[in-house]
């Protein structure tokens, strides 16, 4: 219970005061009259006379009018006194009843401590609420200082005196602070102090004392502290949350936004209220965003939309905003609660994963390495939003990169063609050989490329990523990404580039393997046909010259063995050819009487000529064993190999000595001579010059340089 001023006395209060004043006045008047009469009697006695009231009693009423008047006056005064006494008692009874009623009212206000003090703060009254709240019985606290209910620190700071001074100066003093109970415990109390004044007194009269009213608000205080703590906790959660928390009114206008929005956008939260948030959304996204907002407001369904959000540095990141309606008891929407989260990394990862899947699908259908490189460049360029991307093969010396096609965005020029790696970066090759991704955020500032910044700038490169593809410690391919402005490459972006490079190289290897397989099948088919043709010719010619089947089998078998040895040698060399020396030693290495020291040519014969030479050497050795130098123990054969400086042809010279004397060319030409003079010439272009000298046969085999599909141009073997 609180009041704006001291209580006003009622009519009974005023009547008691008036009656007491009248009684006092009558008493003073009677006292004055008695004093006058006593003085008159004393004076009369001194003169020897009789006082006015000394007349005989029997005759007073008739003989003394003055006496009768006094008697009547006294009777009237007594009646007045009795009346006044009666009214006084009635007024006092009414006052006691009023005080009891007021006391009952005050004691019934048990939630409020109501007490009064004098101006020195000594307690003069104490209600039941004060006893219950503060713990002191009325008898124990009356006359003691009200400062007892203040904490020691407040007493030391003079708080009770300040409140008294404020109440006397302004008419009231209010406060909320910790107070003490009789048992020393503390409670949070709300207090009001007002001066007690007599309404009948002069305005400048000092107050009679102080009225103090206090209420225990400890529960509310603790609830407020808990609420503040909860709000502080919630505020920290909101501020530290990676999401942007916001609210909107029923029309969708933003009414509050979390501090995270300012951290990301650099724009104060109040500037985003209403529809101010639109300034941080990518212009291309606004129509779709407004459409989603209008749909949510019209249907009451939750909002869920993704869009690009502008950061403080001007770049954009993908965000997802979701909002749910807040409804009243009737179900009517009264506002919206919303959150905005950064989904850029997730969205980019999903886009890159989709790009890799797309690349895999496209690469499965491509067999051309150039088309594979183009597809890889396009996927990686779009995935990273770069200016240029490409994929090229690196030569064995790792100095040149050959790019058939690349991908560019906007005005960026194509980088297709052949480039020397060291033209842009002196240590480029060495860096790539480590097999690690080379990511340069700023070619002008990176110490590895600063000296070559002009070269990079000339081709529009300010940031780049290079991913080498290595096989057996050698760089075989390179995937590059270029940007025209400095850029910080993230680990995820580098991993994405690496993944594309590996897929592109795998697809390229697959395409090359398929190409090699097709070529191998074609070449195998060609070789098998050629071999079968040779075998067929050998069989036919051997059959024509053999007198019987056993002779045919023996001759045909030896020729097949010679052909097989040549095939073995060529297979060991991946069918790339063999040197004349290798063929000579393969066919004649087991013959002790053959001098092969003069055959040291390193010129490589293509497979077709190597086979022809093997068959020719076999026929020469067979004829020598039957009819020539090797038919006698003293006979010898020497073979020399050299290259004709005029046209590069390989010359094999066969010389027989120590055998039977030769009278001239044979009358009948067998299969061996026909093969040397005609058959091998048609097949391999080999020319055979036979000279039947008396000392023995001299044969010069000439193998010209071939440059056709059947036999590649010869070059020295490394």
Automatic annotation (TrEMBL):
EC number from the UniProt entry: 2.7.13.3
Coiled-coil segments on the chain, per record: 71-105
Transmembrane spans: none
Positions of region (Disordered): 32-64
Gene3D superfamilies xrefs: 3.30.450.40, Histidine kinase-like ATPase, C-terminal domain, PAS domain
PANTHER family reported in the protein's UniProt record: ETHYLENE RESPONSE SENSOR PROTEIN (PTHR41523:SF8), TWO-COMPONENT SYSTEM SENSOR PROTEIN (PTHR41523)
Protein name: histidine kinase
Organism the protein comes from: Caldovatus sediminis
Source taxonomy: Bacteria, Pseudomonadati, Pseudomonadota, Alphaproteobacteria, Acetobacterales
């Amino acid at each position: 219970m609180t009041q704006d001023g001291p209580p006003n006395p009622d009519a009974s209060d005023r009547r008691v005061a008036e009656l007491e004043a009248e009684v006092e006045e009558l008493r003073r008047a009677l006292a004055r009259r008695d004093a006058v009469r006593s003085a008159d009697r004393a004076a009369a006695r001194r003169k020897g006379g009789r006082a006015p009231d000394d007349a005989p009693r029997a005759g007073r009423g008739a003989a003394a009018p003055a006496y009768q008047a006094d008697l009547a006056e006294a009777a009237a005064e007594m009646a007045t006194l009795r009346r006044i006494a009666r009214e006084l008692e009635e007024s006092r009874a009414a006052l006691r009843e009023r005080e009891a009623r007021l006391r009952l009212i005050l004691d019934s206000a048990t939630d409020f401590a109501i007490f009064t003090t004098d101006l020195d703060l000594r307690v003069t009254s104490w209600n039941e609420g004060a006893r219950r709240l503060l713990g002191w019985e009325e008898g124990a606290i009356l006359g003691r200082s009200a400062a007892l209910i203040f904490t020691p620190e407040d007493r030391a700071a003079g708080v009770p005196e300040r409140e008294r001074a404020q109440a006397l100066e302004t008419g009231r003093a209010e406060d909320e602070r910790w107070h003490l109970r009789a048992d020393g415990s503390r409670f949070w109390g709300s207090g009001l102090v007002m001066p007690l004044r007599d309404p009948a007194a002069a305005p400048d009269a000092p107050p009679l004392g102080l009225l103090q009213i206090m209420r225990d608000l400890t529960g509310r205080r603790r609830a407020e502290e808990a609420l503040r703590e909860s709000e502080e906790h919630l505020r920290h959660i909101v501020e530290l949350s990676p999401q942007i928390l916001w609210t909107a009114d029923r029309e969708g206008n933003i009414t509050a936004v979390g501090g995270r929005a300012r951290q990301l956008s650099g724009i104060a939260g109040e500037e985003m209220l209403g529809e101010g948030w639109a300034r941080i959304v990518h212009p291309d996204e606004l129509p779709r965003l407004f459409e989603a907002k209008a749909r949510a407001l019209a249907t009451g369904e939750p909002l869920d939309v993704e869009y690009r959000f502008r950061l403080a540095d001007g770049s954009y990141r993908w965000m997802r905003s979701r909002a749910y309606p807040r409804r009243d008891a009737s179900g009517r929407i009264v506002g919206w609660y919303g959150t905005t989260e950064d989904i850029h990394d997730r969205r980019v990862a999903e886009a890159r994963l989709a790009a890799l899947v797309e690349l895999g699908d496209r690469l499965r259908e491509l067999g051309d390495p150039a088309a594979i490189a183009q597809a890889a460049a396009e996927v990686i360029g779009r995935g990273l939003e770069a200016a240029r991307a490409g994929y090229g093969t690196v030569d064995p010396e790792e100095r040149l990169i050959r790019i058939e096609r690349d991908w560019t965005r906007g005005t960026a020029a194509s980088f297709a063609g052949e480039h020397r790696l060291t033209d842009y970066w002196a240590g480029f090759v060495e860096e790539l050989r480590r097999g690690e991704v080379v990511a340069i955020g700023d070619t002008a500032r990176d110490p590895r490329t600063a000296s070559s910044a002009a070269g990079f700038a000339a081709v529009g490169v300010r940031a780049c990523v290079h991913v080498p593809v290595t096989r057996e410690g050698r760089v075989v391919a390179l995937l590059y990404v270029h940007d025209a402005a400095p850029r910080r490459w993230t680990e995820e972006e580098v991993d994405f580039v690496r993944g594309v490079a590996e897929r592109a190289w795998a697809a390229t290897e697959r395409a090359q393997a398929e190409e090699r397989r097709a070529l191998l099948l074609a070449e195998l088919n060609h070789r098998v046909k050629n071999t079968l043709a040779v075998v067929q010719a050998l069989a036919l010619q051997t059959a024509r010259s053999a007198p019987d089947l056993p002779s045919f089998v023996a001759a045909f078998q030896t020729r097949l063995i010679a052909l097989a040895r040549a095939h073995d040698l060529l297979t060991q060399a991946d069918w790339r050819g063999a040197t004349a020396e290798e063929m000579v030693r393969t066919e004649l290495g087991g013959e002790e009487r053959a001098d092969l020291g003069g055959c040291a040519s390193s010129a490589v014969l293509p497979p077709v000529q190597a086979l022809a030479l093997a068959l020719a050497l076999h026929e020469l050795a067979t004829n020598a064993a039957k009819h020539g130098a090797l038919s006698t123990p003293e006979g010898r054969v020497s073979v020399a190999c050299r290259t004709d400086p005029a046209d590069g042809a390989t010359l094999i010279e066969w010389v027989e000595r120590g055998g039977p004397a030769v009278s001239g060319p044979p009358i009948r030409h067998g299969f061996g001579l026909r093969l040397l003079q005609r058959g091998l010439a048609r097949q391999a272009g080999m020319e055979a010059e036979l000279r039947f000298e008396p000392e023995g046969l001299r044969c010069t085999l000439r193998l010209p340089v071939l440059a056709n599909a059947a036999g590649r141009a010869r070059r020295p073997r490394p």
